[in-house]
Write a structure and sequence with these properties.
Largest interface: A-B, 89 and 89 residues
Number of strands of chain A: 12
Structural class of chain A: alpha+beta
Helix content of chain A: 25-40%
Number of domains of chain A: 2
Oligomer: homodimer
């Protein structure tokens, strides 16, 4: 049997099975956006996450400028800290690159990484470098912190809670579709915005922190693998069902324009497109969109409701019928034959469930 | 300019230059075996290290069984914690592998990793997986802990201190040379021992901890890139010189036999061979070999003495003349043209100096 037969989620389940029970100081191991660790800090916990980016899977040098890739490599890790309600602190980076890699590329990568580090308050404290026989591969590990009583897990959603989303889903996937089609300069501001959303995503650190310190959410996850897939994970971790109203999913004018240019359906991009790095959370019934938007400093939309344990995740189309999505999320190994244009994909087995959740009835 | 023009040490200096000054909570960033972080634990610090292994550079599937590679991937990180006097606690692992990788290989890798984790007290708490267009690449990040007053840096050596080494240097390099020459079964126990030293090194965690808690050393480093290179790093970090007596370097009978079989000089292997993962430390004048061996539970040899600031690192041959080593350590990028048989090499820019130390007068 090969990895391509097992698939990414099968592999993760296998690793989690091998790993077995962690010690008493591991408050949460594999199965959330970060590990949550008892570090001995009075009243505080450590958060630890790791994510890798490899050329040909997560990026192409042709379409990803080195500086933006550096920013993104840290941003995707910062998003995992945000998804626990934490504050980023320290990170390391390993870089594997062919000997003929231009030094300018490496300079650009680190400049972007450190630029993102400065704006987020995370400090680069170490790393490792090696020649590679293959593509450029970078791997980061990021430590964050959170007051013990404020950590937001995927597992706290309760029936009746509202399901909320920050920002505009699908824009990153639309940007990627445009990058893969085009050769030339950005034809207008909307389409350039979509590409930026893909190449230089903004982790929602402050919003995550505000949800945590205000105790405003019952469960929280970042949208890295697609809204439907990540809602499925949150529901599975919480042991509940969920009903997502397709007509409440916000579709930005830029997304509509980009989807049209790429010949894609904007709702499908919003539901299945990965790498938005928006926050998806649940909150008890009385939290309002406007009040939440004010506190988080981001547009927040109520897009559905948590349903009883045992009910499946249902996505309802504007006519009131269950939607069937043929491709609810990314799987690196199943979806990724080796070749120069492997699909972009999201990341994180600390951000992955133990098995692929069942999305549809 | 390409990475191959800059070299690994040039690259690391460049990264450290980009990174600039770290915050007040970073007690040691780039430039020691681990970063040392103020985590808010009363009386304690966090240690953080990261190391990668990539196929074709650090291992070949032909000669490295998956289970031993898993053990080694953690061992090399554990060795960095040992080299600060710390205790390992939590780790993450990222795995990049081609879709056609056998699941048996992956199972073996994680089995070895977790086997080593259990025996060291470190818990696997998360990770990431991805398909790869190229070779198998694994990257680990390991968190450890140490009482604040006990951390052993590279930088504490003082003129007159003795230079001490645990165990038998060069055995790993001899084992590698044998692995690269041979196809068949191990012809005898000595040569099998050398191969095991290369494929399944033993991190000196307990010895490091005992040096730290007993305040027995003034400076400490692990021997990952070769005895001469790593002594150069320790001396440079401490701002001192060092005199290493070649005739005091312990050459094991197995090393002598392996060097003969591989047509290599045993002293050269002991001085320049990487991946021993022994501890190299300095201690004030009255520490004896026998007493130290008893406390550390390992053979300890006095191999030289720290000399005044401004004096170079000198390696003296048995006849009393300075030795000139043509290849004092590994450099991934300079030494590594792309191809199926890149040289094995050691790792760690948290375990690297800011610039290549000058080894010889």
């Amino acid at each position: 049997m090969k990895l391509s037969d097992l698939g990414e989620f099968g592999l993760i389940a296998r690793i989690a099975g091998h790993a077995g029970a962690a010690g008493a100081r591991v408050l949460r191991g594999i199965g959330d956006d970060c590990a949550v660790l008892d570090s001995g800090v009075p009243g505080g916990v450590l958060l630890l996450t790791t994510d890798l980016l490899t050329e040909g899977v997560h990026f192409e040098r042709r379409t990803s400028p080195a500086r933006l890739l550096g920013r993104k490599a840290l941003a995707v890790n910062l998003s995992d800290i945000a998804a626990m309600g934490g504050t980023p602190a320290f990170f390391t980076v390993t870089l594997c690159a062919p000997p003929d890699t231009p030094v300018d590329w490496v300079d650009g990568f680190y400049a972007g990484l450190l630029d993102r580090a400065r704006s987020s308050g995370a400090a680069l404290v170490g790393g490792d470098t090696s020649a590679s026989r293959g593509p450029i591969t970078v791997s980061l590990a990021l430590l964050g912190e959170c007051p013990s009583g404020e950590v937001l897990y995927r597992s706290g959603a309760r029936p009746g809670d509202g399901i909320y989303l920050t920002g505009w889903p699908g824009e990153s996937a639309a940007g990627l579709a445009l990058l893969q089609m085009e050769g030339g300069e950005p034809p207008d501001d909307d389409l350039a915005h979509l590409r930026t959303r893909h190449l230089d995503p903004e982790p929602r650190i402050l919003a995550g922190r505000r949800l945590a310190e205000g105790k405003l959410a019952t469960a929280l996850i970042d949208v890295s693998d697609g809204l439907a897939a990540d809602l499925g994970r949150l529901a599975e971790a919480s042991g509940v069902g969920a009903r997502l109203e397709g007509d409440r999913v916000p579709l930005s004018p830029a997304l509509r324009k980009g989807a049209a240019a790429a010949g894609r359906d904007p709702l499908e991009l919003a539901l299945t497109g990965g790498e938005d790095y928006e926050l998806l959370f649940t909150a008890s019934g009385d939290a309002g969109e406007e009040a939440l938007s004010d506190v988080l400093g981001l547009p927040v939309r109520l897009i559905g409701r948590v349903t009883a344990p045992g009910t499946p995740l249902a996505i309802i189309d504007p006519a009131g019928n269950p939607l069937d999505l043929s491709r609810p999320g990314h799987d690196h190994f199943l979806a990724a034959p080796p070749g120069p244009e492997l699909p972009l994909a999201a990341r994180g087995f600390s951000s992955q469930p133990r098995k692929l959740p069942m999305f549809f009835p």
